[in-house]
Design goal:
Blueprint (H helix, E strand, L loop, with lengths): L17 H18 L3 E2 L5 E3 H7 L5 H6 L2 E3 L5 E4 L4 H10 L10 E10 L11 E10 L4 H17 L6 E6 L6 H13 L5 H9 L2 H4 L4 H4 L14 H16 L5 E2 L11 E8 L8 E7 L3 H4 L7 E7 H13 L13 E6 L1 H16 L4 E3 L6 H11 L3 E6 H6 L1 E6 L5 E5 L3 H10 L1
Parallel strand pairs: 1-5, 7-8, 12-13, 12-14
Antiparallel strand pairs: 2-4, 3-4, 5-6, 6-11, 7-9, 9-10, 10-11, 14-15, 15-16
């Protein structure tokens, strides 16, 4: 009988075997981050509410509508993290990581984030992200490096339809004049009261509005790309050149602003066209003023958040369209079937030996007969079954059966581990 309790609405959970894929793609990202010199952070899931108000921006939907905020027993206002960058930067500053070595500080983290949204496919109230940040350097090579790490990860998963959308949001020198120009344009449109209020706080947020009735009026809106200062234009051109040097294709997206207030200069999004309305599977950008906004010293930075949930949906979509996609390593590669008490004891030791050698191994428990144990072997997804009976022990062998081909051979017990490793490698 199942429990009468269920996960809260809008919470995305993963169970085996789906969770094996979740874990595998996370580990694939960890390897990309390691290769580029990024260290791991494990962070608090909730923070002082003001960190997100000051860091993410009170004009954003994230802060104004979507945060899970509560008061603890000490009367403190706390919020479940809706994103990672503000928390990562807070941790870097609190632990003085920017004073302990060469800049930039290069870190990554992962886990759940929380937003009170209307649940739908690819948009959840509890969702999972991979986050990577490079803090303390204002160098276009760092921008290109972060983008390349994400692009290499998508490539390692076998995704072939991912598009990189690229824009620049300028800096404190050129943005004010553009802001006034954009505000003047937006004030002349037929917009609701809430959107008009947003024009006065952060007009770029209006460009991010997904409602058709708003988007239809923005065709002639002035674009930041046409109003960059000389330094920002040169910076953006250099980022694009570097991406070209790395063989990473991009598409100019002059209307791309993303949903958070802290972005400056380089801003980007990874898009997957097979996902429909929720096609954004990751993105990020530069946030050179965020450190000061949360009370820290001037400390430029750039980073991204990649959605694990939507990446899995993208893998599903490409597999459905005929692409090879990405497969998690099986939880079991060799399954032990022992017939008799002496054989069970010997098999238990053999399974431990296989695991020490890096072979994922399991065995039948509970003294099952051959038929039941072989059913367990099939259910395990293992490629090979290792069958051991009393006569086999007397002969010093075990029977290794290829569960796909049905072929079975006798292998000396002393050679079981090396034989399986060799066969699995091919």
């Amino acid at each position: 009988m199942s429990s009468s309790f269920q996960a809260p609405k809008g919470v995305k959970e993963y169970v085996t075997p789906r969770a094996d894929l979740f874990y595998a793609i996370r580990e694939a990202f960890a390897e990309q981050a390691r290769l580029a010199g990024y260290g791991y952070l494990e962070l608090a899931v909730f923070e002082d509410t003001n960190l997100f108000k000051r860091g993410v921006g009170e004009s954003t939907d994230v802060v104004s509508k979507e945060m899970y905020t509560f008061e603890d027993q000490g009367g403190r206002s706390l919020t479940l993290r809706p994103e990672f960058t503000a928390s990562v930067l807070r941790a870097v500053l609190e632990n003085n990581l920017h004073k302990q070595g060469a800049l930039p500080v290069k870190v990554w983290t992962s886990g759940p984030a929380f937003r009170a949204e209307r649940p739908q496919q690819g948009r959840y109230r509890q969702f999972y992200q991979l986050d990577l940040e490079a803090i303390g350097s204002e160098d276009p090579q760092v921008d290109a490096e972060t983008i390349a790490i994400a692009a290499n990860w998508y490539r390692s998963l076998g995704l072939t339809r991912v598009r990189l959308l690229l824009n620049s949001l300028g800096c404190k020198e050129c943005r004010p004049a553009y802001r006034e120009l954009l505000q003047g344009f937006l004030r002349g449109l037929d917009l609701d009261e809430a959107t008009r209020a947003r024009i006065e706080i952060n007009p770029l947020r209006v460009l991010d509005d997904k409602r058709p009735q708003v988007k239809a009026q923005l065709d002639d809106a002035p674009l930041m790309a046409d109003h960059l200062c000389g330094a920002c234009k040169a910076y953006h051109d250099r980022v694009r050149e570097l991406l070209g040097d790395l063989g990473i294709a991009w598409e100019d997206a002059p209307r791309l602003v993303r949903g958070l207030d802290y972005y400056t200069r380089t801003t980007y999004e990874f898009d997957h066209p097979l996902l429909g309305a929720q096609s954004g599977i990751g993105g990020g950008g530069r946030y050179d003023g965020l450190s000061e906004d949360i009370g820290g010293p001037p400390l430029p930075g750039i980073g991204f958040g990649l959605g694990l949930d939507r990446t899995i949906l993208a893998l599903d979509a490409e597999n459905a369209s005929g692409s090879a996609g990405f497969a998690a390593r099986p939880r079991c590669e060799a399954f032990g079937v022992a017939l008799g008490e002496t054989a069970e004891r010997r098999m238990f030791a053999l399974v431990a030996e296989l695991r020490r050698a890096g072979v994922a191994a399991d065995m039948a428990f509970g003294g099952k007969k051959l038929k039941g144990a072989m059913k367990d072997a099939d259910r395990s997804g293992a490629r090979y079954a290792v069958i051991l009976g009393e006569r086999d022990i007397a002969d010093g062998v075990a029977q290794v059966k290829d569960l796909a081909a049905g072929e079975q051979t006798a292998v000396p017990l002393a050679d079981i581990t090396s034989t399986l490793k060799e066969r699995l490698a091919t």
